[in-house]
Amino acid sequence: MGYFVAEEERLDRDGLGALHRRKLAAMFEEVLSTNRFYQNKYRGLSFDASCDPLDALPLATRDEIHGDQMSSPPYGTNLTYPMDRYVRLHQTSGTSSLVTGESAGPLRWMDTAESWAWFRKCWGVIYSGGGIEKSDRIFFPFSFGPFIGFWAGFEAAVEQGYFVLPAGGMSTSARLQHLLVNEATVLNCTPTYALRLAEVASEEGIDLGGSRVRIVLVAGEPGGSIPATRVRIAEAFGARVLDHTGMTEIGSCSFECAESPGGVHVIESEFIPEVLDPDSGSAVADGELGELVLTNLGRWGSPLIRYRTGDQVRMTRERCGCGRWFARLCDGILGRTDDMLYIRGNNVFPSAVEGLVREFGEVREFAIEVNRDTALAELVLKLELAGGSDGVDVAKRISTRFRDRLQFSPKILVVESGSLPRFEMKARRVAWR
Ligand SMILES: [Zn+2]
Fold first, then answer.
1. What is the CATH number of domain 6-116+246-338?
2. pLDDT digits over 101-151, tens only?
3. 356 Cβ contact list (under 8 Å, min separation 6)
4. Taking the domains of the chain in order of start, what are their residue ranges?
């Protein structure tokens, strides 16, 4: 049900294994004869063309790719074809570690026409798997820049015959009117921006529950799989929330199916997922926490083979109610290894803080500051509350829930309404002092 490429999406585990080996062998035959990055990386290794088992190959990291682009500017050596075969360039904004505050610098990513067609195919799986239909009208409320953002989602929607509503370069208020007047049924944005649209709608007396939006398709932040954040978005729009994930350098790699019990499927027809213990590098058991490592199988212009995503996940290979055997990340992405906070002896992902704070309906927006000046890092939680809320009471209840669930209490500051930043794409709610 909801298949985009039925013969691949219906495969069982054995069938998927065979598909992986076939696609991998075809990719290696194409890539290894010309791609200097992998020629250098695999020099001296002996492996047969089927690369079975895959774990005979070394892992690739973001630092390695970034270092390669720095030493062979501007695009690095992970290019399988001559430059005139490439038709797209996208660029990341650069990640800054929440722990060290250091910026890793942007990555540039080139695609050939074939690689970009593959990217659109992955989006076809996301749309079809989520139950999006040809009668739907998909709304894209963000500005298109060098960030890969929803470019592929937009172009896939055009190619696959959906009605598209681009809404860049508009205020949030103007976007709301555009969404309502043109009867959009699917909203494609970050969880943060879905909540921002809902906030402005509420300020302007617009009942989004009365809009035609039936699906809010979110990505770019963990929020799409955080229960309290999902509930908030679903209630504001009277719509179903579907999560999916991706990265500029690897592609759009997962989707939530219409029968999902939560979490997202890895698009296993186009990716090989592994979950590894980040310290030992060995595979963890099904359902255990580890780092997601991905190999993409169709982006031959600049492929990533055994790429460490830095994303912490729990993965299961049990068959899903939708009939697919595609592995499922049970809770989406829990957080990035780099973003883990260490507060008073506890390891905390910002997504855990968000999940807790969003359970309080009085909280409109929040921000986290981590104060490293004290002997043990202290977490300061800034809250904007809905009008008429009793700040002292809300702060006390939130503090108790922190202690019960996360084993520490934050310092809570109630700030003036509208004083915290709002975001159109990925939110940056954590700051260091
Ligand atoms: Zn499913």
1. 3.40.50.12780
2. 455 688 999 999 999 999 999 999 999 999 999 999 999 998 888 888 789
3. 228, 398, 401, 402, 405, 406
4. 6-116+246-338, 130-243, 340-432
Find the helix packing angle between 191-203 and 172-181, rounded to 10°.
90
Please give the Cα distance from 85 to 117 (Å, whole number). Answer: 13
- For 340-432, CATH number? 3.30.300.30
CA of residue 247 to ligand 1 center, whole Å: 21
Query: What's the rounded Cα separation, in Å, for the pair 270 and 118?
Result: 9
Find the 72 Cα to ligand 1 centroid distance in Å.
42
238 confidence band (pLDDT: 50, 70, 90) = very high
Q: How far apart are CA 174 and CA 159, in angstroms?
A: 27
Distance 42 CA to ligand 1 centre (A): 36
Report the separation in Å between the CA atom of 8 and the middle of ligand 1, taken as the mean of its atom positions.
14
Using the mean position of ligand 1's atoms as its centre, give its distance from the Cα of residue 174 in Å.
Answer: 36
Q: Which of 384, 382, 380, 387 is nearest to 363 (CA)?
A: 384
> How many angstroms separate the alpha carbon of residue 171 from the centre of ligand 1?
36
Residue 154 Cα, ligand 1 centroid: separation in angstroms?
Answer: 23
Q: Given a cut of 70, is residue 97 above it in pLDDT?
A: no
Q: For 243-262, how does the pLDDT look when each residue is reduced to its tens digit (9 = 90+)? A: 999 999 999 999 999 888 78
pLDDT for 80: 98
Model pTM above 0.85: yes
Q: What's the CA-to-centroid distance between 262 and ligand 1, angstroms? A: 9
CA–centroid distance, residue 145 to ligand 1 (Å): 32
Q: Which residue has the tokens 């038709």?
A: 87
Multiple choice CATH, 130-243, 3.90.1720.10, 3.20.20.70, 3.40.50.280, 3.40.30.120: 3.40.50.280
- How far does residue 427's CA lie from ligand 1's centre (Å)? 28
